[in-house]
Each structure stands twice: as structure tokens, then as C-alpha cells.
Amino acid sequence: MKQTKIQGVFKDRNQIYTENFAPKTKVYNEKIVKYKNKEYRSWNPYRSKLAAAILNGSDFKIEPKTNVLYLGAATGTTVSHISDILENGTVYAVENSAIAFKKLLEVCKKRTNIIPIFENANHPEKYSFIVPKVNLVYQDISQRNQAEIFTKNVGKYLKKDGFAILMVKARSIDVSLKPKAAYDLVQKTLEENNFKIKSQIELAPYEKDHAAIFIKG
């Protein structure tokens, strides 16, 4: 088990892991292994786009004290691994599906560094009473206006020295475009809104027709 370039993310052979924040607890039937008296959860790239991006070469810095605004938290798969990484930080997890949110709440019961928020990310002002300025804005929302949602939330919540990650689903942008053209269209929109693009990483073979765009603060 070796530490990767990303603090809190470990690798053994071709599999990445995070140290379990809630020992003896699984979130999505992931594999749990013990190494030197510590418990690690396997991070499945076929279930988590962030894991796919990491295995495809993304290199970003996340500190244990990082505060994260997570848009599109779903049932908490990726959120739980970010929770593992953060020792002193908090994940503000926004989700507007009642079914997914119910499962997310179960994850939060044993993870005190996740604050679940049942709200629509199209309206970032609605959770301003609880979400402070954050170091990282992470978005995984499959909607046509995902770039607009991202822009509004980053503008309102991201610190000047922070960074942001946008997961782009090509078919949600325009089914007539080839995936790379869809990613580039979203990236162009972000650049027109004065975002500094650090990198764009496609998520195949783990996630078809998806890419991660990394933004500098």
C-alpha cells in the first residue's frame, strides 16, 4: 500500500484506496483491506468518476483540512471517499433526488464530516446559510446547463486560491456532437467566463463519454 501523489489516496497494484473514516463500514459493497493496523476501502473507478480521473492521470492537491462543496452527491459513493481523505475538513453534499438523498443520509450517519443538503444546485443561494467559502467545488450533474450551474456555484463559493472539478457527460450537452467536441464546448464556455483550465481528462475505459475538467482558482 503506497501513498500516491494525491494526499490520502493510496495504491496497491492497479487499485486505489482511501483509509476508512468509519471502520468496518462499507458504502457500496467495496472491498476492505487491512494494512499495518489500518483499514482501507477500495475506490472503484467504474462507480466513481473521480477515481477514474485519478487512475487516468489527474494530479491535484487536496489537503486533509479542505472544505468541499459537492454538487450532485447522489447516494454518496464518491462523497464517502472524499470524506475518508479529509481529517479536519467538511464535505457539503448537495443532492435534489429524494431517493438518492435518503441513501446519502445513511452514509452520513457514521461520517460526521459530511453535511447533507437537500436542494437544487441551480439555486446556490438557497444553501448559502450553511455553506461557507470552500477550497474545492466538485460537480457531477448530468444536465444540459451543467456549465451554467458550475459557474454560478464556483462564483459564489470558491475561495480565490481554491480549485474546482467538473464532470462532463457528453450526451447531456448535445447528443449530435462527438464526445470530445462536447467536452471542448463546455471548456470554451468556462474559458469565456474567465476560468483557468488546468486539464481535461477523459474517463474511458471506466466511464464512457465522460471527461473531467480541472479548474484553477
What does the model show?
The chain has a 7-stranded mixed sheet, with helices on both faces. A 5-stranded antiparallel sheet has the order 1-2-3-5-4, with helices on one face. The model has no long low-confidence stretch (mean pLDDT about 95). β9, α4 and β10 (about 160-170) form a beta-alpha-beta unit. The protein is built from 6 helices and 12 strands. The protein has a single domain (about 45-215), classed as Vaccinia Virus protein VP39 (Rossmann fold), CATH 3.40.50. It is of the alpha/beta class.
Largest sheet entry: 7 strands, mixed
CATH topology group: Rossmann fold
Count of helices? 6
What is the alpha-carbon Rg in Å? 16 Å
Head-to-tail CA distance between termini: 32 Å
> How many structural domains in the coordinates?
1
Secondary-structure class = alpha/beta
CATH superfamily: Vaccinia Virus protein VP39
User: What is the strand content?
Assistant: 25-35%
Number of strands: 12
Low-confidence stretches: none
Strand order of the largest sheet: 8-7-6-9-10-12-11
